[in-house]
Structures are given as C-alpha cells and as structure tokens.
Amino acid sequence: MWGDNMAKITKERKVTYYIGIGMVGIGFILFISVFFSAASFMNDPFGGSGIPPFTNSVIGMVFMIAGSVVMNIGAKGAAGSGLLLDPDKAREDLKPFNEAKGGMINDVISNIDAVDQITNSKETREVIKIRCRSCRSLNDEDARFCKTCGKEL
Ligand SMILES: [Zn+2]
Q1: Dihedral, CA atoms, 32, 35, 30, 70, nearest 10 degrees?
Q2: If you measure from the C-alpha of residue 125 to the centroid of ligand 1, how many angstroms do you get, rounded to a whole number?
Q3: Distance in Å, CA 147 to ligand 1 centroid
Q4: What is the distance in A from the centroid of ligand 1 to the CA of 123?
Q5: Alpha carbon of 146 to ligand 1 centroid (Å)
Q6: CA distance linking residue 37 with residue 49, whole number of Å
Q7: How far apart are CA 135 and CA 94, in angstroms?
Q8: pTM for the whole thing?
Q9: 81 near 72, Cβ under 8 Å?
Q10: Three-state SS for 130?
C-alpha cells in the first residue's frame, strides 16, 4: 500500500533525524567539554588523560557537522540532501540544474563552432605571401622569382 510505504519512509526519516540530533548533541558535549578539560590541562599538563583538549574539540565539531548532515537527510529525505540513495528521485531533483547546465554547454559548443568558422574562413582567405628582399613587393608563397623585379626570392 502507498500509505504503508509513506509511513515507513517517514519513520526511517524520523529515526535518521533523531540519530542526527544525537550526533550533534554528542558533538556539542565534546566541544564544550574542551573548556573544562582545557582548564585542567593547563593546570596540570601531564595529568588527566594526557590528550590535548583540542582533540575533543575537533571530534566534537566533526560529530556536529556529521550530525547536522544526518538531520538534513532525515528532514528532507536522502535525495533532497544531495546523497544519491534514491537515484531516480535525485535525478528528478537535479533535472532543472542539468537542463540549465546542458543549455550552457550547448551555448559554449555553439560559440566554439562560431569561433571555429571565423578562424577557418580567415585562414582560407589569407594567402601566405613572401616579400621580395630587393623591391619589397609581395609574391606568392611558392614563387621562385619576384614577379615585379625578377630577382630570386
Ligand atoms: Zn622584387
């Protein structure tokens, strides 16, 4: 049933969301614990756990970031969060973006074609000429003698 399926997705998303909240909570506790452990670390650098306080801070931040991502997945659904757990849905979500990107690429390609045509027509119109060393007149590329003064090129 469609209804059952919806309920199932919602439940999974709720669980995901709560896991995310839990991760953020753990991260936050680890993060704020730094202020307490930092104090004890400075008072007694060789005592306690011996782990520098910023280690917990970094772990805490990683947990908070990961937790917020998990919460996002729970709230918006996997496809909406940008994770490709539901490729069909994700493709549907990204369709406007892909179409825009495709349009841009087509524009770029047509621009390249236009530039190519200009370059090609310019090349075909331009014939390479050799300037004579004695009279400075232009001669064809394959000419052996100057057509104006008759000297060898
Ligand atoms: Zn010449």
Answers
A1: 40
A2: 24
A3: 7
A4: 26
A5: 5
A6: 9
A7: 67
A8: 0.38
A9: yes
A10: strand
137 C-alpha vs ligand 1 centroid, how far in Å? Answer: 6
| Phi and psi, residue 79, nearest 5° | -65, -40
For residue 77, give the nearest of 144, 22, 6 by alpha carbon: 6
* 42-65 confidence digits (pLDDT tens): 555 555 555 666 787 888 889 999
CA distances from 119 to 112, 124, 128, 129 (A): 10, 9, 15, 19
Q: What is the pLDDT of residues 74-120, one digit of tens each?
A: 887 765 555 545 555 555 555 555 555 555 555 665 665 666 665 66
C-alpha of residue 102 to centroid of ligand 1, in Å: 56
Residues near 90 by beta carbon (within 8 Å), at least 6 away in sequence: 79, 82, 84
Per the listing, tokens 């991502």 go with 69
Q: Which residue has the tokens 């349009």?
A: 103
Ligand 1 centroid – CA 128 distance (Å): 16
Q: 114-139: string of b/e by CB count within 10 Å (b at 16+)?
A: eeeeeeeeeeeeeeeeeebeeeeeeb
* Rounded Cα–Cα distance for residues 38 and 48 (Å): 11
